[in-house]
Amino acid sequence: MQFFIEVMVGGLLAGVMYSLVALGFVLIYKASGVFNFAQGALVLFAALTFVSIEKMGVPFWIALAITLGIMVLMGVAIERIVLRRLVNQPPISLFMATIGLSFFIEGLAQTVWGTEVHGLELGITDEPFDVMGVFISKFDLFAATLSGVLVAGLALFFQKTKLGRALRAVADDHQAALSVGIPLKHIWAIVWAVAGFVALVAGMLWGSRLGVQFALTLVVLKALPVLILGGFTSVPGAIVGGLIVGAGEKLAEVYLGPFIGGGIENWFPYMLALVFLLVRPEGLFGERHIERV
Amino acid sequence: MNPHRKIGDVILKAENISLSFGGVKALTNISLDVREHEICAIIGPNGAGKSSMLNVINGVYHPQEGRVSYKGHVRDSMHAHEAARHGIARTFQNIALFKGMSVLDNIMTGRNLKMHTNFLQQALYWGATQREEIRHRRKVEEIIDFLQIENIRKTPVGRLPYGLQKRVELGRALAAEPTLLLLDEPMAGMNVEEKQDMCRFILDVNDEFGTTIVLIEHDMGVVMDISDRVIVLDYGKKIGDGSPEEVRANPDVIAAYLGTSH
Amino acid sequence: MASPQALQVNAHAPSRPALDTFPKLLLNHAAVRGNRPAMREKDLGIWQTWSWAEVAAEVRAIACGLAARGFARGDRLAIIGDNRPRLYWSMAAAQCLGGVPVPLYQDAVAEEMVFVLQDAGARFAVVEDQEQVDKLLEIRDRLPTLTHIIYDDPRGMRHYQHDGLHSFAEVLGDGRVHHDEHPHFFQSEVDGVGADDIAIMLYTSGTTGNPKGVAHTYHSMIVTARNSIEAEGLSDQEEVLAYLPMAWVGDNLFSYAQSMVAGFCVSCPESSETVMTDMREIGPTYYFAPPRVYENLLTQVTIRMEDASPLKRWMFNYFMEHARKTGTRIVDGQPVSMIDRLGYWLGNLLVYGPVKNVLGFSRIKLAFTAGEAIGPELFDFYRALNINIKQLYGSTEAYVMVCVQPNGQVKPDTVGTPAPGVEVKIADSGEVLFRGPGVFHSYWNRPDATAETKTDDGWVLTGDAGFFDDDGHLKIIDRAKDVGKFTQGGMFAPKYLENKLKFFPYIKEAVTFGDGRDHATAFINIDLSAVGNWAEKRNLPYTGYTDLAGQAPVYELIRECVEKINADLARDPRLGHSQIKRFLILHKELDADDGELTRTRKVRRKFISERYGVLVEALYSSQESCMIDAQVKFEDGRVGNIRATLKLCDVQTYPLATA
Amino acid sequence: MIYREAGQFKINYQSDSAILPIVQDRMFMIGLMVVSFLVIPVLGSDYFLAGILTPFLILSLAALGLNILTGYAGQLSLGSAAFMAVGAFATYNFMIRIPGIPLLLALVLGGLMAALVGILFGLPSLRIKGFYLAVATLAAQFFIEWALTKFGWFTNYSSSGVISAPEMQVFGIVIDSAAKKYLFTLAIVALLTLAAKNMVRSSLGRSWMAVRDMDVAAEVIGIPILKTKLLAFAISSFYCGIAGALWAFVLLGTVDPQAFDLHRSFQVLFMIIVGGVGSILGSYLGAAFIVLLPIVLNLIGQLFHGAISTQFLSNMEMMLFGGLIIFFLIVEPLGLARLWQIAKEKLRMWPFPH
């Protein structure tokens, strides 16, 4: 039982980090209806940029600020150069464009910063500590807390601030948003910038855990089932989805893995999400869509 | 021999239909009959539930209460493709053509139900498939001729003006040789001349093929001219049902819809 | 499509009697080239095709069906509709029974049809569709003889319940039954008709008075058709598009008689709107069109090229220029240098071939034009593309062919030399007369008119004035009755001058004066779009027609045009004295609503000269300008006055070339 | 310009709906076939045949498969490589487990296995659409990759997980040389292309496009949505499966799950985006582009005599691919095939602009 809880808590904590990546998707999807496959590439780019700048001897906070600046610029550039030109295309085209984008950014990141693996030290030792007999990784807890704060902050931002409400209006109906005088282009740029920020946080957390390297882009693949479970448009959905995926995959690996050969964490979340989709196609918190004809 | 104006028995019967979307009532306890060979118009202000009614009839929406019987088949829930198989075809308020295909191919899809070769035969495109394609192509060409759209036969529908798209959509519905044709605002957004053409096509279809037609239309002149019967909906409820003259004289209808102009 | 049982023509019968009627020719084709295509129609998306054998079977069924309803020798069968195979076959079916087909102009309103139907005394009518049926029903009470109306297209006819109204299907069905019951009837009917029987009646348009029915015998039609087929080297491989009105003699010759004689295939377009695309698909080898069709095509080419990229435009212009220099020479078989040939070959690859392809002219071996004068620019454009376009001069009374331009001797301003077997002479009055195998039999019911037009020794008066040039080519200048005289002698042919003026794209209409005067003068209407374009390119601002017409640079432009004509006229000793000395540009466009043009857009010279008498007098005075105050009818029906002061412009004239 | 269509009229529906209704196009196709089948195998170098043309043809086939599903039926898939893998491994297993089985039969059976798996993963398409479905196909990608690596049975318990292709023989001819391999691939690809063209121009293809363009209307017409989608998944996977088997046997000679990873799926997707979504020709143009681009880049790299690292080149390649995808989606969403079509229209209208 204790082992079960340990596995579960570990999974949940990892899940919060999935949520963090998924959050980047939700932000952009909510505001512009774009399923941004390039979020993973942004994570890689952010982490690589930060590490490389820090390696030049720039102090941590300044490196962080510079990276943040670069990410904001990048978000705005993406919106300007790519998405604005695809405004009236079907969502699938936009999705494919972001796949192209992710290739481009990955190539760019490695061209600029090289391909070697960098370590990233955030100064948190990854030692387990005991909570009522359950061992919990300190790092995981830290990461989860940070993610949790960020997620909660963004949720509040969406619910409470004027800009957040504007963003939601944009997501609901572009035309309507335009007609009440919401400057669509600015909002998109802001959203991309925020997404860049989220990518930076995710990149640093994931980077310090896995090392900053190409494999970071693969966290995007972890975030997808989270999104399916949680629904593309829901911030709380991203959190709950992340928790389910995190806990589910760890438990499955531990309890199911031995029977079917192990290494199932790559596909298990997907299968979980798929089965879930068949029951509830709009996701856990997604809005049901009535097709009008 | 001549089905014109010879109105037959009830073929479509909707009884006590109620439909709501997430608590919003679209239709409340509506019953209506449609007789064979007649042209029946459903009118009513925006949001009266006209389109929803058509969607219930051909199985796109499933009502929470009530049932629909068509040619004696009673059902409370039928899928749209089953309705198609029973000879119900329709057009849509916002044109629902297949944008990436030519006029010809769009209308050909209307005959899909009548095409029976399997995909292996189609991969060979020899013998049965080719004969089938030719047979149906000929039938489709007759529809193209009927609707006088010969010159746009191979044009992608996306490039056509609105009025012609409506005509193509009618063609696609006709290709199925339906016994019941549902037309959702066939003349919306058309100029006078296009409306006249469309009226003629609707009357010709009814006349030449004996097709029963249920249509939703806003243009009162058109409705009064071509319908045998008019059903009036208002806020999801039926408030009138009868010949154009009767409906015109119905005080409820005048109050709710026709206003003071009559 | 056609009946499944194709006609079994007695293939092993002893040698057939002379092929002296169209039905006999048809049966012969069914026997010797039964499987070759005889007729096509674009219908249901493809070119439905009938072989000669199938056509013969259809014609037989129609004939027997007509006979079953009482159609007898000598009966007239009215035919009304667009070019449709079944209408052509009905024509042949009537001829099988010794009847006389009478095609009518399908776009005439019911009222206009009354006279012809009454005059011809048609008992039967075969019509295309509901539209034509409605017209006939509308006037039926005035047509006591018309007892049967047969329609081709059943669309919309479902509820028509009228006596004597039959669908084509009924007639065909009855005909097949009739043939089964009387298997020898058809052949004996066909055999009973001979070369000197009346084959067809074609009504002339009748600019003055009522139309007259021109009756032709089989002999005159078949000989004329055969002569031109031989002269032009046509074969049974030709492809022809039948798109001109069936009531017009030209269509009858090209789409019916010549096809029946030569055995080539005739294709009917899907509708009158699709002629262009249908033409492109069929790619005819033999083509006939009045000048306005060629002109429309050229306009289209020009307009479409204006949207092309500069490089393409340059290429087009460069090679068209080259073609104008060498293409016409190549068509006429004149010597051309190797370099020029190479240039032409390249031009053909890049421009001429593709242009012809887009127009549907790729396979044309022979193209005719007739009916009106054709502008030299226009004529040269097509010849430069290596299209052998030729003018001919003809009339209904001649079964078209009077004069044809011989290959290699094509001049834009003449109509060529007399057609094979035809003699042409010029009367002292200047009127053109002809005699030959194609001369008509008589005007229906009008012995008086026949006698007026046809002399006892077979000469026919054309009513046109003309003369032979030095090469023996006929030059038609005007209607004989319109030709006037200058005071000091010499012929004044107003239409000739006006046509020459109108060949300039800048001039839309022209009216010339000179009868009873000592020189010619002209009113000009500029072409607003052409001159407007020209003005825009020169940054010449203008507010509308009247403003533009009064501007000095425009006068200068038109003056140059007129001078060119004068220079041209000066070269011809017979016409040199009709050089235009003065002209003015009218302040308003001549308009049919104001009675200045006929509905077919011909200028009503007399009316204009009366209405604008002040201006005419001014042209013959020494005034520099003249005030005019004229009433106009606006498009919304209001009447108003336009007052303007018009400039009068002198033009240089040239000394006559020595004769 | 080269088109001379006047006089090419159709007197029946067969010729009107022919694959190549214009004579000049037919001539071109015949010429292309003659060159491909007779001239190239004789004149082409081994590198050209085995290093460029054969992979090009196989990838074209995979792109064609994906185009059927994504381009025609409108179902976005990110798992084409997984179906290629199924085809490759299934064919391998049929060959080693049924002694004496003819190569072609094994190939077809392998394709059918891929089709079966395709249907399985296509089932969710009834309920989910768009990128939800795309994500579901990712499940196929990861699951199949995992299963093939994890279970030794698939690889016949080869220790390295990599298996070698047995000798290939068709009608008694051993396919060993580059030319033979090329011809074998070409024949299969040509036949399957013809079949695909036939399917998309008959009622099945129209149903696919109807479902793609407006699924509600398609259903109202009576098109069975699930059956239509599943057929698209099945046929698409069959094509991918055959392509996978050819990739493994004819091209590589070994079968390795890593050859069919997510990257390959993306590569195939890029081909149809660049080449043209919903176009058979586009599958070829896209494949040619994606196959040739790295080769050209390499040549450019060689020009600099090693001054450019291969790492740099491969990063450049990634950027270039990504950039091109975006470029095409923005500038010409229907890809090279559309450009080709426009060029053809221009030639037909030459010298007129429209």
UniProtKB/TrEMBL annotation, chain A:
Q: Which GO terms describe its cellular component?
A: plasma membrane
Query: What domain of life?
Result: Bacteria
Instruction: Report the record's Gene Ontology biological process terms.
Output: amino acid transport
Stored PANTHER family: ABC TRANSPORTER PERMEASE PROTEIN, BRANCHED-CHAIN AMINO ACID TRANSPORT SYSTEM PERMEASE PROTEIN LIVH
> This protein is called what?
Amino acid/amide ABC transporter membrane protein 1 (HAAT family)
Q: Which UniProt keywords apply?
A: Amino-acid transport, Cell membrane, Membrane, Transmembrane, Transmembrane helix, Transport
Which residues, by range, are in coiled-coil regions?
none
The answer to whether keyword Nucleus applies is: no
GO molecular function, one example? transmembrane transporter activity
Localization per Swiss-Prot or TrEMBL: Cell membrane
Similarity comment: Belongs to the binding-protein-dependent transport system permease family. LivHM subfamily.
> Per the annotation, which location comes first and is thus the protein's main one?
membrane
How does the record say this protein sits in the membrane?
Answer: Multi-pass membrane protein
Give the residue spans that cross the bilayer: 12-29, 34-53, 59-82, 94-113, 133-158, 187-206, 226-247, 254-279
**Signal peptide extent:** none
From TrEMBL, chain B:
Q: Which domain of life does the UniProt lineage start with? A: Bacteria
Keywords of this entry:
ATP-binding, Cell membrane, Membrane, Nucleotide-binding, Transport
- Residues crossing the lipid bilayer are none
- What CDD domains does this protein map onto? ABC_Mj1267_LivG_branched
Q: Which InterPro entries match?
A: AAA+_ATPase, ABC_AA/LPS_Transport, ABC_transporter-like_ATP-bd, BCA_ABC_TP_C, P-loop_NTPase
Kindly give the SMART domains that the UniProt entry links to this protein.
AAA
Can you give the residue ranges of the ABC transporter domain? 12-260
- Cite a GO CC annotation: plasma membrane
Gene Ontology molecular function, alphabetical? ATP binding; ATP hydrolysis activity
Give the protein name, as stated in the record. Amino acid/amide ABC transporter ATP-binding protein 1 (HAAT family)
Q: In the record, what lineage is assigned to the organism producing the protein?
A: Bacteria, Pseudomonadati, Pseudomonadota, Betaproteobacteria, Neisseriales
Automatic annotation (TrEMBL), chain C:
User: Pfam families in the record, alphabetically?
Assistant: AMP-binding, AMP-binding_C_3
Gene3D superfamilies documented for this protein: N-terminal domain of ligase-like (3.40.50.12780)
GO CC aspect terms: membrane
Q: Does the keyword Protein biosynthesis apply?
A: no
Q: Which GO terms describe its molecular function?
A: ATP binding; long-chain fatty acid-CoA ligase activity
Q: What are the entry keywords?
A: ATP-binding, Nucleotide-binding
- Give coiled-coil spans as residue ranges: none
Q: Which InterPro entries match?
A: AMP-binding_CS, AMP-dep_synth/lig_dom, ANL_N_sf
AMP-dependent synthetase/ligase domain ranges (all copies): 29-444
This chain belongs to the protein called Long-chain acyl-CoA synthetase
Q: Which organism is it from?
A: Rivihabitans pingtungensis
Starting at the broadest rank, the lineage of the source organism is:
Bacteria, Pseudomonadati, Pseudomonadota, Betaproteobacteria, Neisseriales
UniProtKB/TrEMBL annotation, chain D:
Q: Which organism is it from?
A: Rivihabitans pingtungensis
Q: Which InterPro entries match?
A: ABC_transp_permease, LivM-like
Q: Which residues cross the membrane?
A: 27-44, 50-69, 76-95, 101-123, 130-148, 182-200, 230-252, 264-282, 289-308, 320-340
Q: Which UniProt keywords apply?
A: Cell membrane, Membrane, Transmembrane, Transmembrane helix
Please tell me where this protein is predominantly located: membrane
Q: What is this protein called?
A: Amino acid/amide ABC transporter membrane protein 2 (HAAT family)
Superkingdom of source: Bacteria
- Gene Ontology terms: cellular component: plasma membrane
Any GO molecular function: branched-chain amino acid transmembrane transporter activity
Q: How does it sit in the membrane?
A: Multi-pass membrane protein
Give the location in the cell. Cell membrane
